[in-house]
Fold:
Amino acid sequence: MARRTRSDVNLLRLAELLQEHITPALCHAAFGRVRKTERQRAWTLTALVQFWVAVILRAPRALSQALADGLEVREPLFPRVPATPEAFFQRCRDLRPAFFVEVFERFTARVLTAVPPRYAAEMAEVQARFAALVVFDGSRLAAIARRLKLLWDERAVVLPGCLLGVYDLGRGLCRALVFEADAAASELKRAVAALDRLARDTLVLGDRLYCTAAFFEALHEHGCWGVVRRNKQLGLRKRQRLRKRRVQGGCLEDWLVRAGSGVSAPAQTLRYVRWRRGGTRYEVLTNVLTPARLSAEEALDLYPYRWGIERMFFDLKEVLNLNRVYAANPNAVAMQVYAAAIVYNGMRVAQSEAAAQLGWPPEDISPAKFFPKLAVACHLHLQEQQWARQFHRRGPRAHPHLIHRRRPWARTASTTIDVERRSEYRRHRRYCPARRHWKSLAHVRGGRRFLAKLS
Structure:
């Protein structure tokens, strides 16, 4: 592999995206979609969104510290709102998360057209045959610390909620994110409901959970396609063998099958693709019945890319600090979740453009290295703008060259953000049996009444 040359990367793209799109006009349009009237408050809708986005960028130790930093103008990312902390917490308790969902969807719709699909370039030919290529999966949030009086006597691990993500494989963005305060809510039901947000002719990748006749029936009703890993609980009746050949030392078979018993959902006509070599076996099911549009080899090659959504959840939780929930009420948790998703999509656009500038695949840039530099650049960029406004206010006739100076923090060397390839040695995580014993906050004794009071 050729040695890469040193090059600089622009770190201000995330700040530019947030300033360009997270505007009062977008917030008012989003609120007009979910509600019609709003009482005037010190904590405006725009200030609330900007505050939670700043929380993701700066990761303060506590919300009270972030509110104090914003009020005393110690941190330019936090909006200065002349109100007490109690007003902020009441605002987060009373405002339902539908507003933040709408802001996230509008922001995503804008950045979706800003960049071409550069991720997963090996599957570009397959992506061109469908309207979009997305991955479905669910994940639970980290446990709540035992600081609530409600949880003192609870021995099980208490979770604040769960997520359902829709990951765009080509653009590397989170197309949709569904937060549910009940961590035990059915993932499959939420996935079927999320199909309404997809365009027709979209190809969906899913794991064994989605290998049901009901999910394929829902895909058919929405005009979408699916490639899922086979679950042996779904019965198959072989109808016709379309192809059999030797591939990479194994036997590849492509069958036309009838899936399901027809009791809970209508039986489906699907393609069953299986590759076997010794004890190794890979099996997927798809409702794309035309091999010319999706060959058996392409269906098998697609499935490992489902891991992209696992990386998305890792970046949201570990890189963007979503493992640390700042509040216990479901509305505030939802605000933090969707603010993290907004920052994530902005970071992925900046990552895509930086990779195009360097001539790299976007996957060669490490989000764990890239995001902290973007966050610092956002902080210093706003601080520079704040200093420039104060400078102009005190000296309106000052020459511009006194303000515009070199900004070494606005760029970074490519060698500081590239991915470090893992060694062959793998350290296995010790399994803790206590991870099985978890409970949703909604199922704690008195938890439903607690959530109803907060939401």
